[in-house]
Amino acid sequence: MKFTTFYFSGTGNTRWAVDEFARIIEEKGHQAEQVSIDIQTSLSDEQIRAMVAAADAIGFANPIYGGDIPPIMRAFISRVVGLVGPQKMAKSAYAINTFGYVNAFGPTEMQKLLAGSGLTLTAYVNIQLCNNVTSSKPLDRNQLVKRMARGQKELGRLADSLIAGRKRIKGHGPQLLIGAMIRKKVPEAIAKFYQTLGVDASRCTRCLVCVNNCPTGSISLKGKQFIFSAGCTACMRCYNFCPTGAITIDGVLTDPDKFPRYQGPEL
Fold first, then answer.
1. Whose C-alpha in 147, 184, 191, 196 is 20 to 30 A from the C-alpha of 2?
2. CATH 3.30.70.20 at 192-249, yes or no
3. SUPFAM superfamilies attached here (predicted)?
4. pTM for the predicted model, two decimal places
C-alpha cells in the first residue's frame, strides 16, 4: 500500500510526526510519501491529482493554532477538494495533528473540510509535543521526550489501523467546546499577525533565512527594510529560526540567550 501525507510544519513538530509515520509505514513493508505544502514546493494541479490517484490513502498533517488548523493547510485542503471532486470509489483519508497545550480541533471539523471530495476520513490522531512560542518557562526536554515516545506509539497504532482498513478516530471530547469558541476569534488574529512582526536592525545580518524559509512567501527585503505581508500563517518559523534572534513581536526583542528559540523536537 502507498500512503501519501501532505503536511505543513511551522517549526518542526509536524515534520517530526510525519517522518516518524513514514518510518513506521516503511518498516511494515509499505510505501510512504511526504509532501510539504510550503509555497516553495510549487505543487501543480496535475501533480496533486496524480499523487491522490496513486495513493491508497491520503493524509493531511499540521499543527493546531488556537483550536484551528493553519490557514495554509485550510486553503490547501480546499484546493484538493476542488481538484479531486467526487470519486466513483471513496478513498481513505487520515489526519495527523500536533499541538502543545490542547487540541480543540476535532474530526468533525476535518470531515466538513473534506466534504464533496470523495476522501473519507477513516483515521484522525492528535500528537502532543510542545508549544513553539518562546515563554518565560524553559522547555522541559524530559517531558518532550516522553511525549515523543507516546507519539510514536500513537503513530504506530495509526499505521496498523490504516493498513488493516480499520477506523481510528481520536479527538472527540469536551475540549472541542473550547475550540468552537476560540475559532471565532483566531482567524482575525492570525490574519493580522504579520503586522506585529519586525526586525531589529542591530542584530540582523541580512542572511535572508526568514525570507527564504517563509512557507507563504510573506517576507521580503526592499532596500534595507524587511516587509511582512498579509498571507502570513503565524507559524513562528521566522522568529524561531533567525540565527541572531533579530525578529521582534510588537516591537519587542526577546533575548535569545535568555529565551532559546524552539527549532523542533529533535534538537
1. 147
2. yes
3. 4Fe-4S ferredoxins, Flavoproteins
4. 0.92
